[in-house]
Amino acid sequence: MRKGFDKNMNKKIYNSKVIKLKPQSTKDKLVKAAINHLNTHGRDGMTVSKLAEDANVGYGTFYHYFKSPEDIFIAAVEGSVSELNIQLYERLKDEEDKVYVLMKSFYVIFRHLLTNPASPWLLTNPSHLVDVISNASAEHVYRDARKAVEANNLNFEYHMKHFDTKFRLMIWIIIGGLDEVFRGKNPLEVEGSVAKHMEYTIDLNRRKASEINERLRLES
Q: How confident is the model over 24-62, as pLDDT tens digits?
């Protein structure tokens, strides 16, 4: 198995998410408790009473912010993906190649969800995963897409007009890849297929996208 491709690859990301959540916010305390539980036990045993106890809040307080354990479960995954995007942006904010940054963000999200204990459950209702990825990454993705279009001297109005469709396609490429892996396909083969589909979908500079895919592969 390729270096870096293992189930512990997101440990630091999860831990930093827990640290960065606002300790004064009751809602964030509950989400923090959900992330901690998710990292340790997956979805098993995640109950309202357990989360309330871990967050040191009253049982009834939970329902002031969430309708069910499923809602906070989704919020915890979305929070971890959002934090992943923030960290990626901070690390690559000086990177001039914005097509690379854009593709890297989708590539990292795919790997993150591939090792996230929540993903198999979320795939039972793919609309949950669509919302999670979209809500957590849209701000960064659209910003990088605009910069990529400008940097490559492309027709801004044309490319941004069609980027909504491309963004949705990218999300479904990730979901399709996750489904294939969880059905038993080789993760590395699926990852290569996902990267190739990303290249053709973004289509901001296809020759550059091919070079970036090779760069991403070598980084792994």
A: 588 888 988 888 887 777 777 788 998 999 999 988 899
Give Cβ neighbours of residue 40 (< 8 Å, ≥ 6 apart): none
Q: Is the CATH number 1.10.10.10 carried by domain 11-219?
A: no
Contact 116, 73 (CB under 8 A): no
- 110-160 pLDDT, tens per residue? 988 988 888 888 888 888 889 999 998 888 888 888 888 888 787 888 778
CA angle 110, 42, 118 (to 5 degrees): 35
Which of 169, 170, 178 lies closest to 123, judged by CA? 178
Alpha carbon of residue 188 to chain centroid:
18
Give pTM, 2 decimals: 0.74
8 A C-beta contact, residue 133 and residue 171:
yes
16-47 burial, b at 16+ Cβ within 10 Å, e below that, comes to: ebbeebeeeebbbbbbbbbbbbbbeeebeebe
Residue 174: how many other CB atoms lie within 10 Å = 24
User: Residue 153 has which token pair?
Assistant: 């001297």
Please report the pLDDT score of residue 116 as a whole number.
83
Domain boundaries, the chain: 11-219
Tell me how far apart the alpha carbons of residues 37 and 57 are, in angstroms, rounded to a whole number: 16
